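Why does residue order matter? Because the sequence determines the fold. Keep that principle in mind as you read this record.
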Amino acid sequence: MNPLPIEHELFLTDYIAMFVVVSPFVAIFFAFGFYVTEIVYLRNYKKPLIVFANVNFLKLNDSRKHILAANFHFYNRLKPKYKRYFEHRVAKLIFHYNFEGRDIEVTEEMKVTISATYVMLTFGMREYLNPLFKRIIIYPDIYYSSQNDNYHKGEFNPRMECVVFSWKHFKEGIDITNDNLNLGLHEFTHAFHIHSLKSEKSTSVLFNESLQNLFRVVSKPEVKQRLIESGFLRDYAYENQFEFVAVLLEYFFESPQEFKTKFPSIFLKVKNMINYNEKYFVSSIV
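Structure:
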């Protein structure tokens, strides 16, 4: 009468062992299948298959939410559902990166506004955390950088795995919304641009392919000449391709209507580059 229970135990053990052995291969198969499917979808529709896929949400306390509402028109315009995603990502960045002050105390305002600037830039992207930096360093004002023996307002330093800001100039970029100068957007764009060149994730594929389309448009002699003669972008944009992209993103967020009116084709390429779908996540109530 004993063999039947023994056989049942052996069958259950074998089944569990088979599941343990096979499940990693099944997971790899589905992950690869999803990646291929999304790349095909991305190249056809110029957007990722999925952007927001949270199961659990990190929450911000009321004080941090108040800082967001007081400083970010972008956040205030979001539909309630997407405010929740925005808050989650801000909380995630505050948790994920180290904030370090140099001759200045790091405050809640610094953590929230710096993180929210990054989230605003990458809100259309599923993979938004950047592995090229681990620290965000804050100085009270212009600081001396040993990277190139010069004084800076901000920089992205991949060798030191950090993004650095002068708080005075970062805050000016937040407070003054019509001068197309936003230090946070500028330096975070550099960091994301460089990361996208090293990554094969769908977010980077979208950014790079849209960027190449953008360069093809602005490299046309008639478009380039009209862009330069218009004086729309500040001169610093023409230093190199990295500065051009960073300045474009500043103008995209600070002067969207003027940008769209004057250079609609360039505006559209930038919009595609960061998957910025305003009609999707922004409330009609301003």
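The chain has a mean pLDDT of 86.
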